[in-house]
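Regression report. Comparing outputs from two consecutive submissions.

Submission 1:
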Amino acid sequence: MKAIITAAGQSSRLWETTGREPKTLLPFGDRSILAAILGNFAQVGIRDFVIVTGYRGDLIAQHLRDHANFGMAVQLLENPEWHRGNGISVLRALRHLAPEEPVVLSMADHVVSPAALAAVRDGPPGTNLLLVDPRIAECFDLPDATKVRREGDRIADIGKDLRAYDVLDCGVFRLDQRFRVALEQAVAQGREGISDGVRELVGGEGFGTVLLPPGAAWLDIDTPESYHHALSRRATFA
């Protein structure tokens, strides 16, 4: 199985920390955030990656060259429209991959425990899946988190502004080409986020969820505060 990593955005909320470089290159212990993400995937047997770059993608490419891709198989895809919704980067990667090939998708700023990645990889077959966290009270930045309301183990609604929800989106998906079709439909209507593609499937074939395993952790690094929080809890993501 392959993994898609989206690393195209400019991450302006972290510019004071990054010096306007891609935040996935920030130090994370003795390596970068990107290296930590790749390493966690490798722990669960996923070593083949498509990384979508955009803003300052040259720096990400150089980082990978300097470290021999950290021993992984890596293909870089450039998204020249990186300023648009994050679904555009995902579409570029899904169109590049074989139609029958399910993939795991992760954002380049989400650090997630290997146990959680394995749970997504091994989730119920034949459906698209999202890793979700029921521990809402423990969320570091709840206002910025994407909320999910479920019916059983299926997504009923998703969005940052939901008032009624029972779990949080951890930013890791298992996707097949049905999601590509759904996302294409959403983009054609001017809705360019990953969540927009999810909503397209919610009303049709449905979209499943996988609960974050006990003891596993995840964090979306969007601000200086969340970056320092991630550093303070770095061991929990290994």
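Submission 2:
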Amino acid sequence: MRVIDLKRIQAASSEVVRDINRRVVLNLIRTRQPISRADLARISGLQRSTISLIVEELIDGRWVLEGPTGRLPRGRRPTFLRLNDDRVIIGVDLRPTQTTVALSDINGRFTSQTVMPTPADPEAAICALVDHIKPIIKACSDKMIEGIGISLPGRYDHASDRLVFAPNLGWRDVDLRGPIAKATGLPVELENAANACVLAAAWFERVESCRNVVVVTVSEGIGTGIMVNGQLVRGLHGMAGEFGHVPLDPHGPECRCGGRGCWEVFGSNRAALREYLESSAQPDGFSFQDLLVRADQGDALAVRALDTMAHYLGRGMRMIVAGLAPEMIIIIGDLTRSWHRFGPVIEAEVKAQMLPGGNEPRVVPAHEDGAARLRGTVALILQKDFGAGRQA
């Protein structure tokens, strides 16, 4: 049962109904393109006259293009519709060590990417981002830029429009949106990286039938994004889902959030590197990817460090399973390249703690190219035209 806020309730006007129908048609074109008007009417249940009016409006607004005609055994040949690739989005994946700025079309296909080091100072980082974004805007003079979506390794409060919590960046209470929007003249939307990955899964990985999903991002820290009953959950001040900073051992190592023994202190890339480097001296710049290679080459210390990381990841996911009962847990990060090593351990840890009567969630690695956060920034911008409404 969905609770209705009687203080904010509003009857559906004809404009609201038209907007809902428009979003339905847009999403059908997005997910089934190329598609004909007749198929849109058949699938949506809307009258053909309504479909025709909406499609003409979308064509006039340059959201949709008419493509080739199809062939039928008899009758009028249908004209297929698809989204207009000249509508583009600038996506920014901001991470503690490096930031990626990319240009995507409306279908989530990236046409360019640049990478820059992430400055430690937030004001310097904003200036560097603007310097990278402005040339993209200039190069897109013949296109329609929908906005800038930014994925953050921390929590963003949509009420105050400020980054409130990013321990791995060392930033607190920062206004990112305002200065970037002012400097570029474009709409700017920001979201926690794990939440962005939830949006990417929902929009581009076709998990519409799975309405209770948790995404776990594993990198320098651990982030979790939550979708419950098909809605992205943000919580008060955008702080929902900070499982990475729940202590597994209050006497454990110090975490960058100021606490001790947090989940990410034991289950992140940084945790595995710490354990390995404590036992084996390595040159500066030794990375988690190097650690994966060493393990595959048979380095016993590397194997042990990754095995410890896998066990802690699984144990931490018990909190998620017991608290949220998701249908699916999607894991994103470099560790998925060695899923043969991590998968069985994580799945066994999750299964060992299942409550009586509970259903074991599917634990799925996202074998992707590292672009889940970027695809999430595209979905973040497109929500205003394609989305069903405000997230919780």
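Expected: both submissions complete independently.
Actual: both completed, but the second showed a warning that disappeared on reload.
Relevant detail on submission 2: The mean pLDDT is 88.
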